[in-house]
Design a protein that fits this description.
CATH topology of the largest domain: D-Amino Acid Oxidase, Chain A, domain 2
Number of domains: 3
Shape: globular
CATH architecture of the largest domain: 2-Layer Sandwich
Structural class: alpha/beta
Distance between the termini: 33 Å
CATH superfamily of the largest domain: D-Amino Acid Oxidase, subunit A, domain 2
CATH class of the largest domain: Alpha Beta
């Protein structure tokens, strides 16, 4: 992928999409498959907002059973199945255990009944998923001894065992966004990171594109288009503050959803659901509390999710130290044997998503259930503009298709039929069996590439991993950066083919180097050297990139980077 700002300024597009998180990226892929001439812009890096900061689950909608929302349940399951099909390298099943206690709503029979209903409502969940090891299995149950063998820390009076269901998990949320972006690019979309939409272009009451600014170079230019999809997430409604056009539009509520990563190697491949200290007030059938989760992710344990009504600007959404300490205390109160310690926490994530409301000073929450889709033709008498504010990464493909359908109704003669994005593999997704692919690549790897590096290549790049291994044949390219599992070849690919323009783009989103914890200052310096050579950075620019990436890592509450 190449960043061609002159093309953005020169050509007229069928649709310009603002925001390249999961929803905007999926919309660009969908629109390009429909044969539209697409421009996709993102004010930061692709997938750098809430998409990168999510809990890495691909939810199948079992929670919606408590709300009686069968439509949303089926839609979520359909989207989970689609991602398992089109990105098999980046999405896999993960079993989740809910401990059961005594009788009543916390009992095995009560949970089991709900799970069997869910299984019946999602009977086609594995359609088109070729590899049976990647199927979402039916509910199962553990007796007390079996549960304690997996999770001895949940030993309590009245424990009877556990109920098990499966959901999806992403290996790398930013790389899944990038797979959508690159898939759109290969179909002819013009894509660019670090391009901010500052205003709409107008022709009477019709939007005809956007005024844009290169946030790296400072240049401003117009991007002309027949239609505009505003998919900028929590930033989307800041473009709607023009009273003369949008009246007294009020920004909706947002939740700052947060989780953290712990340097604790999982004992099994099962996640554990633990009753927390908040409740979902909108459920029709509720248990004692909303669950928190301890989830195996790579060699770490991922813990969350916490929700907080957040009214400030999105750029101010961070996890504060006192909050992290409170969450650790909550987990230890809910599961005392877990004994989490602050020094184990390597990373804290947070992102903004649509929310319901919360009464001040309570733990009674009204969670967001659906994406916000605004047809400005109806709400403001404005043509050519639809705003989509996504609720969950899981539904990005389906909700963006619905937004495009709505937008294309405003273009007479446009192709309205949906494309087959639920079956068309994304870049890297053209593989039926991940284990078989990894076995084939074992024969191609240079001797210096470790098993762990090869596995990471397969998980990040899928069917494109052979190209990275070919690049690794170049001098020094097969070396691991700073003793990590990330190869120099991956950084070269990130710069030359993945539109990584900043050090943090490659460290945090194109590769695994900084995705779970601080990689150490020596590794950062080596990574900066690789990028500086290819992007012709001056020594001053290299120093700026190192300092900026350190600030990002500190902001995410990583512990101090080691000197290793």
């Amino acid at each position: 992928m190449k960043r061609t700002l002159d093309q953005l300024a020169r050509e007229e597009f069928d649709v310009v999409i603002i925001g390249a998180g999961a929803f905007g990226a999926a919309a660009a892929w969908d629109a390009s498959l429909r044969g539209l001439h697409v421009a996709l812009i993102e004010q930061g890096d692709f997938g750098a907002g809430a998409s990168a900061e999510c809990f890495k689950f691909v939810h199948g909608g079992i929670r919606y059973l408590q709300h009686g929302n069968i439509k949303r349940l089926r839609a979520s399951c359909r989207e989970r199945s689609a991602l398992l099909r089109i990105a098999p390298h980046l999405v896999k099943p993960v079993p989740i255990v809910i401990p059961t206690f005594g009788a009543g709503r916390n009992s095995k029979w009560f949970l089991g009944a709900g799970m069997h209903v869910y299984d019946a409502l999602t009977a086609g969940r594995n359609t088109g998923i070729a590899d049976p090891t990647r199927h979402i299995g039916p509910a199962s149950f553990l007796n007390r001894a079996e549960l304690l063998e997996l999770f001895p820390e949940v030993d309590r009076p009245r424990l009877t065992g556990g109920a098990v269901f499966a959901d999806g998990q992403m290996y790398s949320p930013p790389r899944l966004v990038l797979a959508f972006v690159e898939s759109a690019f290969r179909r002819g979309a013009c894509v660019a990171n670090y391009v901010q939409a500052t205003a709409f272009l107008w022709s009477d009451r019709r939007v005809r594109g956007v005024r844009a600014r290169d946030t790296l170079g400072g240049d401003e230019f117009d991007i002309r288009a027949r239609l505009v999809l505003n998919a900028a997430g929590p930033w989307a409604e800041y473009l709607l503050q023009d009273r003369t056009r949008f009246g007294d539009h009020r920004r909706g509520n947002f939740s700052r959803d947060a989780c953290f990563i712990v340097r604790r190697k999982p004992r099994s491949n099962h996640a554990l659901a633990i009753p927390g200290q908040s409740r979902d007030r909108d459920t029709l059938v509720s248990r004692d509390a909303r669950h928190l989760f301890a989830v195996p992710w790579r060699d770490y344990t991922l813990i969350g999710v916490w929700h907080r009504l957040f009214a400030a600007k999105p750029d101010q959404a961070v996890v504060e130290e006192h909050e992290l300490q409170a969450w650790i205390a909550e987990m230890n109160a809910c599961c005392p044997a877990m004994q989490l310690r602050r020094e184990e926490v390597s990373y804290a994530n947070c992102g903004l998503v649509p929310f319901g409301a919360v009464a001040t000073g309570t733990n009674d929450l009204s969670f967001g259930k659906e994406s916000r889709l605004i047809d400005h033709r109806r709400s403001h008498d404005i043509e050519g503009l639809v705003t989509l504010i996504g609720i969950r990464y899981t539904t990005a493909r389906g909700d963006s298709a619905a937004a495009l359908d709505l937008l294309l109704q405003q273009w007479t003669g446009a192709r309205l039929a949906r494309s087959a994005t639920e079956h068309a593999p994304l870049v890297g997704g053209d593989v039926d069996n991940i284990a078989a692919l990894q076995a084939r690549l074992l024969r191609l790897r240079p001797p210096s590439v470790s098993d762990r590096s090869l596995e990471a290549l397969v998980r990040n790049y899928g069917s494109e991993a052979a190209g990275i291994l070919k690049r690794a044949q170049e001098p020094r390219a097969a070396a691991a950066i700073g003793g990590s599992d990330t190869l120099v070849a991956e950084f070269a690919h990130a710069v030359e083919d993945g539109m990584a323009l900043r050090l943090e783009d490659a460290v945090l989103r194109r590769t695994d180097l900084g995705s779970g914890s601080h990689p150490g200052r020596a590794a950062l310096a080596e990574a900066a050297d690789v990028m500086a050579e290819r992007l012709a950075w001056t020594p001053e620019r290299r120093a700026q990139e190192l300092a900026s990436t350190e600030r990002v890592l500190v902001q995410h509450h990583a512990t101090e980077g080691s000197d290793a």
